[in-house]
Amino acid sequence: MATIDKEELPVKEEFLLDEKTLREIETMKGAGQWSIVWRRIKKDKMGMLGFYIVLFLIAMAFVSWLLLSFDNWLTTQGYMYGNPHPGFEGSRNNLYIELWFPGMDIENPIILFQHPRYMDHANAKLPPSFQYPFGTDANGQDMLSRVFFGATVSLALGFIGQMTTVIIGTVLGSIAGFYGGIVDDILQRVIELLYSMPGFILMIFIIVLFEDVNIPGGKYAVVVIFFSLIGWGGTALIVRSNFFSLKEQDFVEAERALGASDMRIIFRHILPNSLAPIIIIVTLGIATTIFTFAALAFFGFGDPTAISWGDDLNRWQDFLIEYPWMPMFPALFIFFTVLGFNLLGDSLRDALDPRLKD
Amino acid sequence: MNRPPEDILLEINGLRTYFFTEEGVVKAIESIDLVVYKSETLGLVGESGSGKSVTALSILGIVPDPPGKILQGEVIFHGQDLRKLSDSDMRKIRGNQIAMIFQDPMTSLNPVFTVGDQISEAIMLHQKVTKKEAREKSIKIMSLVGIPSADERVDNYPFEFSGGMRQRVMIAMALSCNPELLIADEPSTSLDVTIQAQILELLKATSEEFDMSIILITHDMGVIAEMCDRVAVMYAGYICESGDIMIIFKSPYHPYTRGLLGAIPRPDAEREDLTIIRGAIPNLINPPSACRFHPRCDYWMEGLCESVLPEVLEIESGHKVRCHIYSDAGKAWMQKHGEAREIGKIPKSAVGK
Fold this sequence. Notes:
Order of helices and strands of chain B: EEEHEEHEHHHHEHEHEEHHEEH
CATH superfamily of the domain at 149-351 in chain A: MetI-like
Shape of chain A: globular
Radius of gyration of chain A: 27 Å
Structural class of chain B: alpha/beta
Helix content of chain B: 25-40%
CATH architecture of the domain at 149-351 in chain A: Orthogonal Bundle
Largest sheet of chain B: 8 strands, mixed
Number of strands of chain B: 12
Distance between the termini of chain A: 56 Å
Order of helices and strands of chain A: HHHEEHHHHHHHHHH
Largest interface: A-B, 20 and 32 residues
Oligomer: heterodimer
Number of strands of chain A: 2
Shape of chain B: globular
Helix content of chain A: 55-70%
CATH class of the domain at 149-351 in chain A: Mainly Alpha
CATH topology of the domain at 149-351 in chain A: MetI-like fold
Strand order of the largest sheet of chain A: 1-2
Strand content of chain B: 15-25%
């Protein structure tokens, strides 16, 4: 008995949907807000450039953080592998990447990547070369390594500073916007008070004031805490005005009639509706925050013991004419970070605009 | 028709809600007395701005504050005064025992969550169920309110539904906790006529199935005639007439009710101009004194209606009217002035105004 294999049945050509239609159906299926936003960003070339820059920098910061923590762990465990200069006591680390070809002197491999704190005074102030692509600084530290490992602190400061700022601003702004009245009045006066003071100078003042305070996280912890304490005003105002229009929506009343509490309505129902402006604030704000911290470090109010772009920039700013690579590379990376986040933020702002239809 | 007092589900006595705005105090509800019996449909009818929706919000205690405030009165539900309950106790009643559906289904659903999430949330707010059980229950209740292929539609966002389907979702949310009282605030106004009929049919069917009472707020007398057992007519913060639907439609006692009914086109009646009610609803910041209807009333008894507020009179069992035509003061006025005021016979002085 002959069985009919269903797959071999001839399919009429006209019933087959072409690739393009199939793909369209596929995209329509998941046409949630975020897939629409993603599609719009993908169309925007500059936005995608920003997205890739940001992605690259985040990956760099994450990888360097992992490597450095692994190295620190090894060091604290007492494992010291392959210290290239065993006699040099100044180096208490073993992180480096060496290149060795068969036939080369096994005692002197080419070192591609040094630990950021490893000082090789014999090789100080070297211009960019094959062995040191970004050159070395006045202490004989590998600039490539400094820049690579500096990403962690620089980006983390931007993220943490901006996230805490936005969280404080969002919580206060939503409560003020939802309840209005006296709560809102108090919040507005506080914001006006914060805005009436020059932020940067206030930051410098606070840093100088707390210079001798020792808290876990070092000097930058103080900087971040005060940055978020004085910087939440803008976010709060935007979230507040957003809440003013959203709380009049019928679904808020409907939710109340279902017996939801105020806090539930604020944070579970209205807040997700004002997520779009918050995302834009975060993305654009990270650029500004990184810039602010780099500027603080540039003026000497950073943490000289930290490995960060701003501090390196501050340290070598006087060498700009003689040894331009020393301040240039950290500055270049600050520039790219700010550029990347700004491009992505602009693109996001356009993509999240509901008045635009694609 | 008067049902025994133990059949009373909700009783409102002397409710007064004002809005304290910057322009002045809006006296939206002056004094409302209302009774809802078990498993009946009560129609609340009146012009726009007569305080129907504010009454509904006052029952649930969700009048936007500021600027709104319930000043006095009691809302007795199952023998307890809802106004005396704490906020958290009140939240347990909202959505659970008293649910509400709103006029505009296009804006009453949260646009960023799927309808399944929203119905599940309504269930989980009041019942101790897992997320999965709540979801299953949502699907069940969605198919109950007539949403086709509910198990797929449960994951859709509100913008993927039509207006009628969204109103069905709203009804599903309201029904999700088997409420005893459903307040429907113009549930069909923003829908087109065929969908209106479907939604009303659905409300009627579910009210019978769930054995719940409905307060149906509308300004459409046709909807009232179709749906309700009893009707209460509101004007500018007062209930001016309430009673059995048959009695009200057959022989309205209050001039305002008469005016409303006269404004319905009737295909069966011989061609006749529809009557109108002169003027518009007054500004409630500065409402007319005493009987708030007197400036628009054809039967205005000068010197009486604007100075003395008529009492609520029970004309016959279950049929209450607030009008001077039937009060002792009114009868004294008629005798004194030698002018008769009888409903249906517009006095000569009012003609041509």
